[in-house]
Amino acid sequence: MAERSIWSSGVTLAVIAAICASLVALTWQLTAERIEANEKEWLARSLQPALAGLFFDSPVTESMITITAPHDLPGTEDAIIYRVYSGEDPVAALFIVSARDGYAGPIRFLVGIAMDGTVTGVRVLQHRETPGMGDRIETHKSDWVLQFDGLSLRDPEPRYWAIKGDGGQFDQLTGASVTPRAIIKAIRVTLAYFEVNRDAIFAAPAEVQE
Length: 210
Description:
It is a single chain. This protein has about 210 residues and is α+β, with helices and mostly antiparallel strands. It has one domain. It contains 2 helices and 5 strands; from the N terminus they run αβββββα. It has helices at about 1-45, 180-205, and strands at about 65, 80-85, 90-100, 105-115, 120-125. A 5-stranded antiparallel β-sheet has the order 1-2-3-4-5, with helices on one face. The longest helix has about 45 residues, at about 1-45.
């Protein structure tokens, strides 16, 4: 009798587990498409501020390529580039790269570059910099990253892509010099990469977005 009861309980638990697994799978199928759409919408909104002043008619996330590490862009992981078009004409490239030498670790950020080599915008995506000091690289805490808009490797010259304390053009953050040094260097390196590889970037086949 006890063995039959145990066996019966086991069967019941197995049936309940199967039902739960089926419900989870069904829920995932019903929500996966919406979750993916929400993620793409969030990504598009995140990229948009780095394209201020540009006219384009293609979805920002439509044409993506990945530059596999190692590469000449900032960071040790794969770099992502979103290519932006007006019709069939390329307008800008949005780079997601990492400044490796931040004060508290790598700083993941976005830099937009127009076809003429000028910066269209810089936005920090992820960091662990010191609150109240290095974290002022975020646009809702200060306008520090906005000073790069419209600049290029010609304006200023590469040797002036540094904080003023190092003989460069750019303000540092009060009480923080390591963080701005890391970002300024990474932007300059990204601009140099774009200048050399502009044609190859826009000639590369786009990756299929699942």
